[in-house]
Amino acid sequence: MSNATANLSDVAKRAGVSKSTVSRVLNNKLGNGFSVKEEVRSRVIDAAKQLNYRPNLIAQSLTKSKTRMISILGGSHALSELGNIYQTVVNNATAVLDESGEGFDVTIDMSSHSKTDSELPAWRVDGVIVLASCSETTMQELESSGIPYVVVNGPAGENGASVVPDDVCGMVEAINHLAEFGHKKIAYAGPVGKVLQGHSSLQDRFSTYLSEMSRLGLEPIFGKGDVCASADKFLESVVIARGATAAVAYGHMGGLNLMQAAHAHGISVPERLSLICFCDEYANRIMSPRLTFIDLRTRDMGRIAAELLLEKIKSPKQELNRLVKLEEKLVLRESTAAPAST
């Protein structure tokens, strides 16, 4: 017999006990008048190890009221870029789930799905965490099935919860910081135009940049398209040609690309150009000089999302129609200073 095919009956035979005894020992469900000697318990565990026995989680999910399985959806789009914010979210969410003592197995869906596909796994799960977004079909299934779910950095349906950063607050912090240094020519280095129809952060950051510049009586300065793909053109058209002395980058990759391009053009940071980006502390560690940044609170997003999910799993009838909005924070580092002319 191949160890890979070992089942409950094989373990019971090797240990010389019944299948029910094996099941109770391995699931740690002794009680209600049922007990085993320590010698029997050790024999069962040793037999399971010798046979490389692994429980059939799918089969268990069909028979148990609780599966002890959590699915994280959206990995294909949220985790595709190295160093992005969702890695920190997932790390902190899984840490909370592990520390709960409930014995959850957490899976992450990294498959690509069409817009009409369901992203839910074939097996039953106790709860779901969605990274940013999922297909409309998936959302409808989550809403109709009653599976507890939380969306991180995206909208939830009527029966779910959502944990998001406050991008409006973050942009206000960034512009005010640069204005207090005396910058008058503050550029926005991020997606503009038709791409703003995507994630809400695209619209929130750009529209808040425009409104804050208007409030301060300053002229908005920005390039075209996505600065991540054209940092050199952005510097040439916005910094060199129009004299911008500061820039707020949409994300850490845009900030990093601008910093590298600035070095290539002989533009010193922060003496000639002050830079701020939106990111998390982990992503900021890879940059030199270290960028002043708007902290998206990714650790807190992951932690709170997991806590909300655990709360709903434990109390299914409890209302979970919540929107938790986390205030973004300005973290001062080495890439911002007063403009050279002041």
TrEMBL record:
Species this chain originates from: Anaerohalosphaera lusitana
InterPro entries: HTH_LacI (IPR000843), LacI/GalR-like_sensor (IPR046335), Lambda_DNA-bd_dom_sf (IPR010982), Peripla_BP_I (IPR028082)
The UniProt record lists the keyword DNA-binding: yes
Residue runs in coiled coils: none
Molecular function via GO: DNA-binding transcription factor activity; transcription cis-regulatory region binding
Classification lineage: Bacteria, Pseudomonadati, Planctomycetota, Phycisphaerae, Sedimentisphaerales
Domain HTH lacI-type, residue spans: 6-64
Keyword terms, alphabetized: DNA-binding, Transcription, Transcription regulation
UniProt-recorded name of the protein: Glucose-resistance amylase regulator
Cited Gene3D superfamilies: 3.40.50.2300, lambda repressor-like DNA-binding domains
